[in-house]
Amino acid sequence: MITAVYPGTFDPITNGHSDLVRRASDLFDHVILAIAKNSGKNPAFDLDQRKSLVERVLNGVHNVEIRVFDNLLVDFVQECNANVILRGLRAVSDFEYEFQLAGMNRRLAPEIETLFLTPAEQFAFISSGLVREIASLGGDVTEFVHPDVQAALSKRFS
Fold first, then answer.
1. Using alpha carbons only, how large is the chain's radius of gyration in Å?
2. Which residues are catalytic, by number?
3. Domains (range + CATH), the chain
4. pTM of the prediction?
């Protein structure tokens, strides 16, 4: 059985994230979407809000589990008995950073593989940071996020 962990802050979850999870659920036996506490990023939504939004967005996607973590990623992956870290690559600019992370994770836990998926073309430019910025300035983010996320962003930045 192959279990993949897809980590991130998901602040908020975007259509790009959910596309990647849906595709991963067809590739792996079990997918764990792992929401990082990551308090250093000063998130727009607290951990409980992010988890709630992720659960609503991914409701009905088979073989996906939503968990939160606040420790070293490779330790979390080992706790989950997973074999794969799944990361998304939107652009070449993401590659250098992700390549460094993958190398460090391999050094810390050589039994865990890192796999990269690229988003569907229509989601390649979407990032949580851009979505938050647009929403905070009163812009329309409906094509970038699930309606529940859009409503939460509107409430957060109203």
1. 15
2. 17, 41, 90, 128
3. 3-157 (3.40.50.620)
4. 0.94
